[in-house]
Specification:
The protein has 314 residues and is an alpha+beta fold. It has 12 helices and 10 strands. Helix 11 packs antiparallel against helix 12.
């Protein structure tokens, strides 16, 4: 075999035993073919030694050591856990929220409540709401439905609807067999409001600024007064009276933009009967389709119902 006059060889450059660099293009003049083979054998021996060594051994140990340290709870979180447990044991049967421990670190309190739930000391009702149970002769106690609904109302903006709204406004003395509520939220936790409760969601965001009675009146108008036990004349008289209370018509007028057209028409008819601002009523009328006719239900006898596109009574 002919010997090459000039060879281009890979020259290993080892730095310790943890890295290797290759430098190409080095000229080796007058280099014998025997030395060339010997040189490559030595190079391969170095390479195999380098590959066989486990370079990640120290890193794995370091990571495992750090993970062990991080998994150990700190003294601060242990103190928070002890304090939260003590407060819950002293408080007896009641609802607990994260806000009840607002002076403590949020994450530590959340972990403490979650741990007490896993231990069976608390029952999680919804996000951030827990119930401290009490053992009775019939098993663990259950939360008070009234207290739970009040809590849901404070958190989400929950308002009475249907018969409950009519009862609140004085149109009926009936109490609904099943609770009926409305909310601007997308949903409500069933454990908070009850499994049998009828929930009307996605009410306009404008309802959030309304009082309970204002929202109940809008719900009553949405149902065209059909939840009233009173006669049509008495229903109209009481509806008008409710809207004469200070500031109520103006509040409902501001919320009317997000209400169905029928409700806007009813509010306009009542406002015209009460002699309210004409410019505001004109803007309300312009928001209605002039070719539409609306079912006013028991409120069809309003004095200006026809002017606000109410259907004729049959």
């Amino acid at each position: 075999m002919a010997r090459p006059a000039r060879l281009e060889l890979a020259t290993p450059c080892l730095e310790g035993r943890r890295s290797i660099q290759l430098s190409y293009g080095r000229s080796l003049p007058n280099f014998s073919y025997y030395n060339y083979l010997r040189y490559n054998l030595l190079f391969c021996a170095h390479m195999s030694s380098f590959i066989a060594e486990k370079l990640d051994r120290f890193s794995r140990c370091a990571d495992t050591f750090d993970m062990g340290r991080r998994a150990t709870p700190s003294k601060g979180s242990s103190r928070v856990m002890a304090f939260v447990r003590q407060q819950i044991e002293r408080g007896g049967e009641r609802l607990w929220r994260l806000d009840d421990f607002r002076n403590l670190p949020f994450e530590a309190v959340a972990q403490a409540l979650s741990r007490l739930t896993r231990q069976g000391r608390l029952e999680r009702l919804s996000k951030g709401v827990y119930y401290s149970t009490r053992q009775t002769a019939f098993g663990k106690s259950r939360p008070n439905p009234t207290a739970i609904q009040k809590l849901a109302s404070r958190r989400k903006g929950v308002f009475p609807a249907g018969i409950a709204a009519a009862n609140l406004l004085g149109f009926t003395t009936q109490t609904p067999r099943r609770s009926e509520i409305s909310t601007s939220a997308l949903s409500l936790p069933r454990k908070l409001v009850g499994s049998d409760t009828v929930i009307h969601t996605r009410r306009p965001e404008a309802w959030a600024s309304l009082s309970e009675s204002d929202a109940a009146l809008l719900d009553f108008l949405r149902r065209a007064g059909r939840t009233s036990e009173l006669s049509p004349e008495e229903t109209i008289r009481r509806t008008v009276k409710l809207l004469t209370e200070k500031g109520r018509f103006e509040r409902l007028l501001r919320a009317a933009a997000s209400e169905p057209p029928r409700v806007r028409a009813m509010i306009g008819a009542i406002g015209e009967q009460l002699g309210k601002n004409r410019a505001a009523l004109r803007r309300l009328r312009d928001s209605l389709n002039p070719f539409s006719r609306f079912d006013f239900g028991l409120l069809a006898g309003l004095r200006h119902a026809r002017n606000w596109q109410a259907r004729e009574r049959r």
